[in-house]
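1st attempt posting a full record on here, be nice pls
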Amino acid sequence: MKRASCLAVAVLGLTFLALTTASAQVPYKEGAVERVVLIHILPGHSDAFMADIKKNVVPIWEAEKAAGLIVDYQMFLNQTRSSADEWDFGYSLTYKNMAALDGLPDKVFEFRMKQYGDQSAEQKVIDKRVDNGRAVSSYLIRNITLR
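the predicted structure (as tokens):
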């Protein structure tokens, strides 16, 4: 009888420990990570801005996607602007997880140089890009699934 009581207490203790550990878990499962950038396009520069994105940026994103560095990318427009200084255009780059960001600049460098030729040519395009728009904000967000 004494042995059965000890066994019951041990099982009860382990059950309590398991329940405590389970309730201490985060109530969600971590998913993909997204970089979201919102840009204000300067008045009269919309066509030049979109042409630059199409010619210079999308090919890099496509190369990153083909290489598995990003899962996907999206571009979107603000349809509910409440002031002239708000963002007009946005994009998001989806990464598998936080670890995908480790060493990313070095991994993307090859694609940038393939697109622009060299850093001097890239800088000229970036300087011109600044004439067309300005970044309003940039966020790094993590997708979650509730448990």
